[in-house]
Amino acid sequence: MAFDLDMIKGVYARMEQRITAAREVVGRPLTQAEKILYSHLWEGAPTQIYERGKAYVDFAPDRVAMQDATAQMALLQFMQAGRPQVAVPSTVHCDHLIQAEVGAEKDLEIAKNRNKEVYDFLSSVSDKYGLGFWKPGAGIIHQVVLENYAFPGGMMIGTDSHTPNAGGLGMIAIGVGGADASDVMSGLAWELKMPRLIGVKLTGKLSGWTSAKDVILWVAGQLTVKGGTGYVVEYFGPGAESLSCTGKGTICNMGAEIGATTSLFTYDEKMAEYLRSTERADIADAADEVREHLRADEEVYANPEEYYDQVIELDLTTLEPHINGPFTPDLAWPLSKFAKAVVENEWPERLEVGLIGSCTNSSYEDMTRAASVAGQASKKNIKAKAEFTITPGSEMVRFTAERDGILDTFEKIGGVVLANACGPCIGQWARHMDDPSRKNSIITSFNRNFAKRNDGNISTHAFVASPEIVTAFAIAGDLTFNPMTDKLMNEDGEEVMLDEPRGIELPIQGFDVEDAGYQSPAEDGSQVQVKVDPESDRLQLLDPFKAWEGTDLKGLKLLIKAKGKCTTDHISMAGPWLKYRGHLDNISNNMLIGAINYYNDKSNSVKNQLTGEYGEVPATQRIYKAQGIGTVVIGDENYGEGSSREHAAMEPRFLGVRAIIVKSFARIHETNLKKQGMLGLTFADPADYNKVLEDDTIDILGLTEFAPGKQLTIKLHHADGTSEEFPVNHTYNQQQIEWFKAGSALNIIRASVGA
Question: What residues does the Aconitase/3-isopropylmalate dehydratase large subunit alpha/beta/alpha domain cover (predicted)?
Answer without folding.
Answer: 34-477
